[in-house]
Amino acid sequence: MFVWSKLSAAQWIDAWEERFAGNPNLVIEYVKGGRSVRLTLFCESEKAALAIKEQFGGSIRKLNREEWNKPVEAPRPLKVRDVFLLTAETQTKALTALQKANPTRQLISIPPEMAFGTGDHATTSTCLRLLVDIARERKGTRWTVADLGTGTGVLAIAAHKLDSGPIYACDFDPFAVKVAIQNTQRNATPDIDVREQDVLKWKPRKTGYDVVMANLFSTVLIEAWPVIAKSLAPKGDLLVSGILASQAWDVFKAAASHGLGFTKVIRKGKWITARGGHFNDLTPPA
Ligand SMILES: C[S@@+](CC[C@H](N)C(=O)[O-])C[C@H]1O[C@@H](n2cnc3c(N)ncnc32)[C@H](O)[C@@H]1O
Predict the structure, then answer these.
(1) DSSP H helical segments within the chain, as ranges?
(2) Distance from residue 123's CA to the centre of ligand 1 (Å)
(3) What's this model's pTM, rounded to 2 decimal places?
(4) pLDDT of 129-142, one tens digit each?
């Protein structure tokens, strides 16, 4: 494991985020009172780290496994609508205390690991909110779910706690799959079917899924629209995120060419999250 790092003026943060869009292993921290940012990119091989250094300058160093797995800063508990409380806590005592302090909320415990999806990112938290809305509309039905690019498994776990039917979750990163399986066990949702699978090579079952979630970055979404369209059951709800505002037009245009459209689009910072479905099924949200 190698890490590439570089200091940059904070004014270039948008450019760096766009340059590395699609790479979940980039960490950007403000330093020097917000005037600069430190970019840290975790790479699987020295060759990959050297290629980045060659292109963008900066420095690289070797990282041992313990350091790689070391928790990054824990996210604060995140409240989602009046339903969830996401926490980094894993200890029974702390979780019991949290549950006591928040008796009406369901806890989701996601410790900070190197997999994406602790809830502190705008894309995850917006997906969670829209998922709560979808679950309310589908209450009492047995809605099936596919979570494409599951990361920590957070969206799949939330769907389970919202009384969905069977859930399929996948990620092409074996480490994310391992983390997601641990999290499904930790959150008493072990029947979520978590698979190592590249969405772009996925063959969804013929009946499709009632709710398809894909927090996947623009470039992947554009390539994945044909398979996403196939995986969405008639009258299904599609929830997508990971789209940089500057790329939204291209992403939605590509979706339209596969019969998919969006009736609710939410911008949080630079990130767009959208809810939609097959064109034939779309009705404006209430
Ligand atoms: C932005 S994270 C989303 C994680 C989580 N679903 C959430 O909402 O917080 C994107 C995830 O998709 C995975 N991913 C990216 N491209 C993929 C692909 N082609 N097939 C499967 N997983 C992919 C990444 O490994 C990463 O875990």
Answers:
(1) 13-19, 46-56, 65-69, 92-101, 122-138, 154-161, 174-186, 218-231, 248-256
(2) 11
(3) 0.78
(4) 999 999 999 999 99
